[in-house]
Structure formats: structure tokens, C-alpha cells
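Example for tutorial group B:
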């Protein structure tokens, strides 16, 4: 057998084994969470409010709070991130300013989330006077997701061949019309991938909401964007490490984790379905 072909087959076997290991770890984690938390899931658990210091009752206020934060941070991060990526990819060229912006974006993506939480507390909670509120938490999470949205959108736009841009401009379209009618629609299926990743990140963050919005025990729904809310990640942290009877509350922690995973999974599946529909439309 050819030496190069043998090396290739060995490499492919190694890649398959590593892929199976990763998939196996994923299913092991999911199976463990499902096994530990499925027994807690009930209609009362999903629709009820916490009671007795969160040792009993449900997690409905935390579910609503999490969805509010996901929606609020998405409204902030998605438009700003996509428009920023359009500017750096389609308008700004490759000058020093763009290189500086990209370096800063990469650095921003590497900052620990707890630093975002401290910044959000200083700026949004204290300086701007929003207090511990949905708007403060959404702004903080939006900043956390912004670098990921910018980078993934920029890469999606770069993947569009320049011939499409040149052809559109040659037909008399302006650069704005080219972006709006050619490059952005073609790149949007891949842009959705970045949006999915950003939602997955912000939905499970605890440190930023700890300083800006999360309430320890608040068995009621918010009435405005200036209210505090409970959130599933912080609720999970509290009932897993606090309290006098950890063994009694641990099943609730696994149940909360399972609900959070299901919410993220539903959002990801819905976004993936939308991406496939858009890909078929532009195929």
C-alpha cells in the first residue's frame, strides 16, 4: 500500500475516533442530566413559583426571566454586531483602523464574563441608574455576545465570492443595494450560525447577571424592563450550592439544568430550521 495512502487512512481513523469521543461525551453529559433531572419535571415544576426558600415549588419565574434576558440581549447584540461586521467587511477595506477593530474585537471575546458583569454593574446599574434590572442585564449580556456576532458575521460575508459584488455593481447597483440584496441574503444562513452560538453562550452565563439583574428569590413575574428577575443559570447555582439541605434540592438543580438545556436546544433547532429554509431559497 502507498505510504501516503496509509498515513491518510490512519489519520482518518484517528479523526473518526476523536469525533466519536466528543459525541460520546456529549451524550454522556446529556444522559446524566436527563437521568438525574427527568424525575423532577412536572407541570407544577414548570409553571409554579418557587416556595420555601426555593426548596420546593417550580421555576416558572426563572424560565420567564431567562427568556427575557435572551430576547433583550439579542435585540441589542444582533443589529449592532451585524451592522458592525457589514462595515468592516464591505466598507472599511483593510486599513489600520479595521485591523485595530478586529484585534480589539478578538480581545473583547477573550475577556472573562465576570469582568463584563463588573463593567455592567458599574456602568448600567450605578452610573446610568438602571439598578438591578432586565435592561441592565440585557445590555451586559449583549456586550458579551457582541464580539462573537461580529466575527461570525464578518466571516460569513467574506465567504461570498467577490464576483457577486462586482456583477451587482456593474449592473448599476450601489454598494448599499449590493449589500442589502446580494451579499447579506446569501450570507444570512451562515450568520444565523453565529447568532445560535451567541444565544447559547448568553443563556448559560451566571456571572454577568449576578451583578446586574438576577434575584435570589423572587417568586413573581417582571412587569417592566426595570424589574429584577430570576434566571435559570443563577437559580441553578443557588439551589446547587446554597441552603441547609443540599440533598433535597439537588434533584431540583438537575431539573433546572435540564429545562435550560431544552430551551437552548429548542432555540438552536428553530434557528437551524430557518437556516436550512434560507439556504434552499438562495440555492
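The residue assignment follows.
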Amino acid at each position: 500500500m502507498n505510504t501516503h495512502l496509509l498515513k491518510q487512512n490512519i489519520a482518518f481513523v484517528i479523526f473518526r475516533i476523536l469525533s466519536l469521543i466528543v459525541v460520546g461525551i456529549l451524550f454522556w453529559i446529556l444522559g446524566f442530566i436527563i437521568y438525574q433531572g427527568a424525575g423532577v419535571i412536572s407541570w407544577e415544576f414548570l409553571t409554579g413559583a418557587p416556595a420555601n426558600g426555593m426548596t420546593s415549588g417550580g421555576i416558572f419565574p426563572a424560565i420567564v426571566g431567562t427568556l427575557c434576558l435572551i430576547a433583550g440581549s439579542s435585540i441589542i447584540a444582533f443589529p449592532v454586531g451585524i451592522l458592525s461586521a457589514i462595515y468592516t467587511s464591505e466598507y472599511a477595506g483593510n486599513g489600520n483602523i479595521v485591523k485595530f477593530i478586529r484585534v480589539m474585537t478578538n480581545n473583547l471575546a477573550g475577556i472573562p464574563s465576570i469582568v463584563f458583569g463588573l463593567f455592567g454593574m458599574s456602568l448600567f446599574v450605578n452610573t446610568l441608574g438602571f439598578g438591578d434590572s432586565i435592561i441592565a442585564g440585557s445590555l451586559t449580556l449583549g456586550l458579551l455576545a457582541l464580539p462573537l456576532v461580529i466575527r461570525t458575521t464578518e466571516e460569513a460575508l467574506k465567504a461570498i465570492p467577490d464576483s457577486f459584488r462586482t456583477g451587482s455593481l456593474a449592473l448599476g447597483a450601489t454598494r448599499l443595494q449590493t449589500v442589502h440584496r446580494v451579499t447579506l441574503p446569501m450570507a444570512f444562513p451562515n450568520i444565523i450560525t453565529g447568532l445560535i452560538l451567541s444565544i447559547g453562550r448568553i443563556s448559560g452565563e451566571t456571572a454577568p447577571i449576578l451583578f446586574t439583574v438576577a434575584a435570589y428569590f423572587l417568586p413573581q413575574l417582571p412587569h417592566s424592563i426595570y424589574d429584577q428577575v430570576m434566571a435559570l443559570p443563577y437559580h441553578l447555582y443557588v439551589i446547587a450550592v446554597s441552603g441547609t439541605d443540599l440533598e433535597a434540592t439537588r434533584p431540583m438543580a438537575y431539573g433546572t439544568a435540564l429545562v435550560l438545556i431544552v430551551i437552548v436546544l429548542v432555540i438552536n433547532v428553530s434557528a437551524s430550521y430557518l437556516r436550512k429554509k434560507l439556504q434552499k431559497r438562495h440555492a
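Strands lie at 50-51, 56-57. Compare this with the pattern of hydrophobic and polar residues in the output above.
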